[in-house]
Amino acid sequence: MKVFYSNVCLKHAPKHEIISGNLIDYLESPSRLIKIKEYLDSLPIFDFVSPIDNGLDPILSVHPKDYVEYLQTAYDEWVNIGGNKDAGLYCSDLSCCITKDTWESAYESAQVVISAALELKRFVEESSEKEMNPLPGIFALCRPPGHHANSNVCSGYCFLNNAAISTNILKKDNKKVVILDIDYHHGNGTQDIFYLSSNPLYVSLHGSPDYPWFTGNESEKGEGEGEGFNVNIPLSKDTDDDEYLKKLKKVIYENINPYNADYLIVSLGVDTYKDDIIGGLQITSEGYKRMGELIKSINLPTLFVMEGGYHLETIGINVGNVLLGFNT
Ligand code: OKP
Ligand code: ZN
Description:
Elements: E1 2-4, E2 16-19, E3 22-25, H1 30-41, E4 47-49, H2 57-60, H3 65-80, H4 102-126, E5 137-140, H5 162-170, E6 177-181, H6 188-193, E7 201-207, E8 230-235, H7 241-259, E9 263-268, H8 285-297, E10 302-306, H9 315-327
Parallel strand pairs: 1-4, 1-5, 5-10, 6-7, 6-9, 7-8, 9-10
Antiparallel strand pairs: 2-3
Helix pairs in contact: 1-9, 4-5, 7-8, 8-9
The chain binds {5-[(3-aminopropyl)amino]pentyl}boronic acid and zinc ion.
């Protein structure tokens, strides 16, 4: 399996964030990526590939220019004025610290995902039915993550919505896309971006009630043309492997398979892990293997996009297990 990866994603490294009024170490740290890379490197099936710079256009298909310019210039402007004005104009919470390196890493994170999406698309277009066995899967190992970023709002460690950007690439040529968001948190940014659209189908399983607090209800089903194409499955904290897999299986049968998509994008967070420090359902490392197997059963060319996961001791094996489950 090809893994798109770039060290430039490590540069964004704010020192602190504020959670519940307390100043703590920034949890969305570069070590997360390093740990995952180390683990995948130790297994023979993963090939690391560097992204190609595909420029701003794919990003601008999701994010307006004024927002992109804000991300590019806010840090310098803030330093120049001595730091008191408009710093948070496009931010919805205190977890999206913009440092001198943020734009570079957020841009690179998007480029990792764009390159992975283009590679998957090319592979599928060049393959005959026969070659689709084994099922093509590609992993975009990127940070900062994306699913809380709205078109012009950064929040929850996210600046550019990587899953949405890659959706717009895979949607080209009248293709249909499913986004399956298995991060612990509801992907409010992704939901919002496509709320009025029937393509992609957005499906999220997430812990509730929890961040981002005001979205992720089952009653949010999309609007207009998008009605029926947004599926939220809120889960209680005590959800274990069996319960999780049962719900995932149900949504695959009832919503994902009947949609008849051409591509699957998995917003891959492993913060559902039982000991995660921010999220945490009762999922075990073995559970991630089963999740990967179930995702494979959807039988679509699949782009895995890295989102959350904060338990550094197991983040590698948990991500690895989803991918291994898919690849068996
Ligand atoms: C990003 B991703 C917890 C505060 C959490 C932001 C969480 C963002 C998660 N009390 N602050 O979905 O993993
Ligand atoms: Zn999360």
